[in-house]
Design brief:
Blueprint (H helix, E strand, L loop, with lengths): L9 H4 L8 H6 L1 H10 L5 E4 L2 E4 L3 E2 L4 E2 L3 E3 L4 E2 L4 E8 L4 E2 L4 E7 L4 E2 L4 E3 L2 E2 L4 E2 L4 E2 L12 E4 L2 E4 L7 E3 L4 E2 L4 E2 L3 E3 L4 E2 L4 E2 L4
Parallel strand pairs: 2-5, 3-6, 4-7, 5-7, 6-8, 7-9, 8-10, 9-11, 9-12, 10-13, 11-14, 12-17, 13-18, 14-19, 17-20, 18-21, 19-22
Antiparallel strand pairs: 1-2, 15-16
Amino acid sequence: MLIDNFIEDFSKTFSDLNQSEPWNITNNLKNIIEKMIINLGDDYKIENNIAIHKSATIENNVTIKSPAIIGADCYIGANAYFREGVYLDQSVKIGPGCEIKSSIICSNTAIAHFNYIGNSIIGRNINFEAGSIAANHYNERINKKISVLYNSEIIETNSDKFGSLIGDNSRIGANAVLSPGTILVKNSIVKRLELVEQVK
């Protein structure tokens, strides 16, 4: 599994990472972002390990916990909540009331209002309609370790926190739920109210 097969040019931004284990990237995202902040230019306002591009728009009552990188021309709606390491690429739109945790969201992706994205890597030009969720933890299972299904093979992540890897140009319908460990190829469509549970 190579993230570049899901997200175009992922490795150009995130070099020197093990692309075959996206769950390790999200679990270590705080350290990855802290190192990236050091190399950012004057186009960013950097304070307390939070880097916000000067062209980004951030509405009222947004909470951003360090570390975080908010890229050029991003828009973050009122009352959004970012925690434990968030990376937004260029021209990402986050709607009001969203919560994003330990996730990478690539360019030109829109996350509508009242969404939750946890421990996920979200590709380019993706649209999440309102209320859709990328869950990152099995609350209901005794065994919390997350497995993923890729090329008809079940891969053990040995992690109890991993959300989704979503390929470019995908569409996630309103109030859909992506169960922990969801892997979606490019151009995937998840219908409104659909539950995606690839490993049961």
